[in-house]
Design a protein that fits this description.
The chain has 311 residues and is an alpha/beta fold. Helix content is 47%, strand content 17%. Probably involved in the biogenesis of the COX complex.
Amino acid sequence: MRNRSSSMLAGTVLPVLLEAKNVLLNLWIYGFIAVFKTIRIMAYKQMSMSMRKLYLVFSRNVSSKLKTRQDIGFSGYALLSIPITTFCLGTWQVKRRAWKLNLIEEIKNKRKAAPIELPENLEELASMDYQRVHVQGKFDHSKELYIGLRQLITENDEGGGLFSSRPQSGYLIITPFHVTDKNITILVNRGWVPKNKIDPDKRAEGQISEEINLVGTIRLPEKRPQFCPKSKPNSRTFYFRDVPKMSELAGAAPIFIDAETNSTVPDGPIGGQTRITFRNEHFSYIVTWYSLCAATSYMWYRKYFYRLKTL
């Protein structure tokens, strides 16, 4: 009897439990789906809000930028020409510095090269400044010319600058020199003498009369320096190397060479008075112009575009 009752109870309860299990499982599944849909909807809304904010920020930046460009106006673009101009000047100085360094190196090579003969075509002299040449002939001391006042350049003076280590002043003796094999007369800077020996009679032993071989450096005409007085008409004393007038006065071709140091003779002018002076301050100009470009560019940016950075 008891066994029969237990069997009937099990047959009644078991289906109920299975049904309850199915109901709970369905509730869990539907709950998970509902939560997933809720999360998806919230995420979509959040993404929509973020995209909207991003769009608003982008629209604000674009409108602010357009407004800023409209606010620049003619005066703003005119001010922009300042950094552009300074940048161009800095770049130009870079090229000038490269040119100057090449020129200095070229002259150094010419000074070290072996001397050559004078060219037949005088037009070639225009590209031969500082070129060493070899000539043979005789001096005509009766037509001496003078350039002064000048300070003595010695071998210890680096590059033959504007100032010498010796404060004594004097004159350069420019003497016509008849080149035998070319049958032309040129001007030769024999060298330096002190003021008290500018008179040829006071240095008679140094007035070479025989034919000699001479090595010198070709020099082109010199422009009159600023604040330098003009040479007096028909005067044999000049303040700068005015080759055309000097050659006309001496009856020589417009060819001018500086005699080298080894041309010096006792009681004569001291040779080797070639002045090599090159101002090479282009690097400081480069720094100056590029610094001005950077400064004015930043000032222009701060004035017209700084607001975009704060958005």
